[in-house]
Amino acid sequence: MTIVFGSSTSTISGQTSSPGDAQRFKQKIDHLVLYFVYLFVARFVLGYIGTLCACVAAARTTNALRKAFLESLLRQGIPHFDKPGNGSVATQVTTNGNRINQGIAEKIYTCVMGISLFFSAYVVALAVQWKLALITMSIIPAIFGSVGIVMRAILPVETEITRLYSRGATIAQDALASIKTIHAFGAENKIVNLYDEYLRAAHEKGKKKSVFLGILFSSQNFFTLSGMALAFWEGFRLYQSGEIASVGTVITVLLSVTLGATSVLFILPQIEAITNASSAASELFSIIDKEPSRLDPLSPGGSQPLKCTGNIELRNLSFAYPTRPGVPVLQNLNLKIPAGRTTALVGPSGSGKSTIVGLLERWYEPTSGQILLDGTDLADLNIKWLRNKLRLVQQEPTLFHGTVAQNVAKGLGEEQKSLPEEKRMQLIQEACVAADAHEFIQKLPEGYHTQLGESARMLSGGQRQRISIARSIISEPKILVCDEATSALDSRAEKAVQDALDRVTTNKTTLIIAHKLATVMAADNIAVMADGQVVEQGTHAELVERDGLYAAMVRAQDLGTGVEQEEKREKEDDGLGEGNTLRPHHSTTPSLARTRSESKIGDLGTGVEPLTRGTLNYSLFKCVWIMLRENRQLYPWYALIGLAYLMLSGTYPAQALLFSRLIEVFTLASAAEAHRQADFYALMLFVVALANLAGYFCVGLASNAIGQALTYRYRKEMLQQMLRMDQPFFDFSENASGSLTAKLSSAPAATQELMAQNLGLMLNVAGNVVASSVLGIAYGWKLGLTLVVTGLALIVGSGYVRIRLDQRLETLTEKQFSGSARLAAEAVASMRTVSLLTLESAVLREYSECLDGIVTRVVRSSAMTLIPYSFSQAADFLVMGLGFWYGSQLLLSGQYTTQQFFVVFISIIFGSQAAAQLFTWTTSITKAKSGTNYMLWLRSLESQIRETDENRKRGPSGEDVSLGFRDVEFRYRQRPAARVLRGLTLDIPAGSFAAFVGPSGSGKSTIISLIERFYDPTSGSITINEDDISQLSPMLYRSRMSLVQQEPPLYLGSVRDNIALGLDYEPSEQEVEEASRQANILDFVASLPEGFNTPVGSKGTQFSGGQRQRIAIARALIRRPRLLVLDEATSSLDTQSEKTVQRALDEARAAGRRTTIAVAHRLSTIRDAEAIFVIEDGRIVEAGAGHEELVARRGRYYAMCLAQSLDRGG
Fold it and tell me: What residues have CB less than 8 Å from 921, skipping those under 6 apart?
């Protein structure tokens, strides 16, 4: 191009100085114009191919990196996930992946193109006039040296920022995944503050980049423009000395230097993005490059015996968790688990029962000793083979996003997975029938094809556990391990499932871990554990006869009914089992329950409108305007950028003017005048370089300050808004915690890129385009107007088309990216379930398919979107050709002078090149528009359950808490046809203890959700001290109560942090210890190396279920609640802990008139209740003033007691 341009310049200069034959001049111009057309075609085709290849390579590379990251993560083994602060997977695969994709697809390609243009321009210059070219090449070391120094300084800062954001995202994801707990304890602000600590640290780190970016931007512009001044100044001298023969040679070299300079300016905006991509890649590669764990579930190593009998022996087994090596969990334990027999493990929480399961599953390796399967050390067996032979039903079952059938099918064996769909569905239904799940599944809106959503929140704990049991037994494993498998089931379902388990475990090796001793009575061998050792062994009868620890546990759990043996036998004949005598209990409240099971049922049908999902569709200009309007504190920085760009927008017009003057200098007759003007105009170019030095330093400084402030503000604001949303928002699959966490990172990042760096650069380009156009039209309106209208129309039109196509692509891929992030986050969050079901390969396959679909769509769409983009990047050659052709006509007719022509032509050409540069940011523009619209949409949502001006200061009246339900009905918004509660009416007086019992899925946990106001009733009302809770401040209302859930989540931080979660102040040591003592966890915490400062790890998985539950109970008690809500609060506790905690709860209730509401399947925990409500199918079918009254009625409650009696059939 520079050669053609130089030749054209020489032709025009020669024609004006010696008119000659006009026809010959015209033919030469026509010939040169054709070269511009050829250049257009070449740049369009090659640019399209190059950009398309870059986009395809970027999509595939990022795709491969994401897959490799997840695969490497899945191969690290469970101990890796126990370590705190490993970062959010959703952030890693989404935000970091997007950064890398942008760096490879757009930024690196642009840089490669710019660098190649830079060097090719100098190659042309060297070929044309080597001496002048070598002199101007002195700027190259300065340019690349400054880039290297700045990038070396920025990269470690950016890497640390990426790490901090990833750690913060872990906090956010854990909170979003357990939003009920966060709402119940009013912990929104505490989580935001914890997240804010990481944001602030990242913000402070980010501000350190400002000066470096200022130096980077300013130095590059200064050096390149100085090179132009040097090229002209020295070129003129060489021309005058005769070393350069023609003006065209100088112009070619000068234009080459200009092009090289422009290409460097083209590279500059990409440097930061490439640095970000590099730090993001570093974060991913820190996992990808990690050697697989010795417990790699995807390793083909290890033996795979043809036969598995199922004989298990634990020999001198000792173990301590890697993160707490000084705390032994198992100590020289010896135990035999014979093949085809049932062995039970019982004992206090924390005695090591569940740890044995972890060692059997090979989640961990023993510190010393061995575990043998059929005489072979587990360490010598293939891990996948072992886990396929062994199936585990967990204490806290995890279900995955998908349908009921898909969740159960995840338990299929390798051979079963290849069966026809019809046969697999038959196996799924048979397993669900066996697990007593078929009946309630059939009642779901779409039966087995009902979508469960994240963590199956809309199912009860018992329903989730039954699906989990079906998933575990569907493959008919050789070894079945049940870790509190029926703890969440009611007595009827427990009996049905226990019978099913008895059937499927016939002639199978079975290991049962239980606190509910009724479930282990029939075991062939019961091992009682304490302090990591087996202290008793034998059958139920043998251990009861010994009158040791086991016998004491039996007595503590025994449920009596006060019924004569004959009546027991009659009931047993009816399938109700036996009971035994209960010590008399005298109710302090004669009649607490006022019930009404039948009521008017509102005909809602499907009229419940779902929560609005999606995003807004504001234009880019409106998004920018909103961002500017609400960030007034950044106006000084924007003012600085505005002033800098106002000055810098004159760069292209100044270059055009000076360039035209430079050409004119060569035509001057007076050597002295030519020398004087050459020196002056070279100096003026240097002045322009100095102006760019100052201007771009301000731009780099201010843009980074703005970017850091914006990303800090909007990340924090988005999390605040997400945590403010009520539960129905989180019931939609689009709002799964993994998807939200990914949005939390990607949306502010895209907005930051637009509002900080790209907005200023686009304004600068726009300013240069306008200034160049105005200058061209002012100097010669005919040529100027022609080039502006045609040139800008071509470039802007094609650029606009690309933006529209990019927006469509962004909309199409956004949902898939969100789905892939959710899938990866869900798999890692449920790593134990993934491993025990050997789902690693399936997860990778599903993740790969999801990403491959995105890549295919991106490639196809890029093939279309890059056509207008490539056209916009090549269109300036058409404009040049038109300009030379039409300009030559104006010169021939005498309407324009040479100077006039060159001022108009060069100013418009520079302007058109700037306009083409504008559309290199189309992808960033599209992502920023999408991200900003999402943030604004999220902000526009209003929770139905929220603080308002009317209720902000309105809390429950009085100190004590009484509750009332009036004709309460409830349906989930996503299942409007299914009535969960049907006209519920009841009263719970202040200071009383009320309990809800009944089958799984009957509505008990829904009642808890309504009491906590996670949802509002579909109709009817709930009152606290006669105040309708819908009229009260949710924060003030919930501050009166505490919740202990069946599966309590713990959060990243220390034991102390978790206990103090629901407090708005820092508790004293005495308060923390007292709450821990009441929850019977104080001695255990004191035994830890760091006491209350011991990190709990990811989700507290290093603690047993009972230990986690006791920490949760301490978390509830430290708030001194007036209303204590217990949803299976002691289901994971051993007998002794349960008695201790229950006694503490009773004492606290008696001392402070605390109202307690409990949901329980283990009836021994609620036999002191002063009111018991039996719930079935959303109705109260039986209620009474305590255990004795209901037993005396010989109704449903009585039947449940008989079913749970310990010495039934003994």
Answer: 269, 758, 761, 762
Sign of CA dihedral 419, 423, 425, 430: negative
Tens of pLDDT along 492-532? 667 766 776 777 777 789 999 887 787 788 889 999 998 88
**Domain ranges for the chain:** 2-293+619-940, 398-478, 963-1204
Q: How far apart are CA 1122 and CA 1039, in angstroms?
A: 9
**Residues in a beta bridge with 512:** 344, 482
Instruction: Please name the helix (run of DSSP H) or strand (run of DSSP E) that holds residue 312, with its range, or none.
Output: strand 312-320
Which fold, 398-478? Rossmann fold (3.40.50)
Place of tokens 């943030």: 935
d(CA 214, CA 492): 72
C-beta of residue 699 within 8 angstroms of C-beta of residue 760? yes
CATH of region 2-293+619-940: 1.20.1560.10
CA distances from 787 to 2, 683, 808, 911 (A): 20, 30, 31, 10
The predicted-structure confidence for 1003-1050, as pLDDT tens digits, reads as follows: 888 999 999 999 999 999 999 988 899 899 999 999 989 998 877 888
Question: CB 649: neighbour CB atoms within 10 A?
Answer: 22
> Matching CATH topology for 2-293+619-940 and 398-478?
no
Which CATH number is associated with domain 963-1204? Answer: 3.40.50.300
Closest CA to 407 of 432, 430, 436: 432
Residues 6+ apart with CB under 8 A from 467: 397, 399, 404, 407, 408, 432, 435, 437, 441, 456, 459
Query: In a 3-state reduction of DSSP, which class is residue 1033?
Result: coil
Indicate if the alpha-carbon torsion angle 324, 327, 332, 334 is positive or negative: negative
Buried b (16+ CB within 10 A) or exposed e, 1186-1201: bbbbbbeeeebbbbbb
Query: Residue 67's closest CA among 100, 35, 109?
Result: 100
Q: What would the two tokens of residue 14 be?
A: 């020669």
Strands (E), 489-577: 509-513, 525-530, 533-538
Q: What percent of the chain has pLDDT over 70?
A: 85
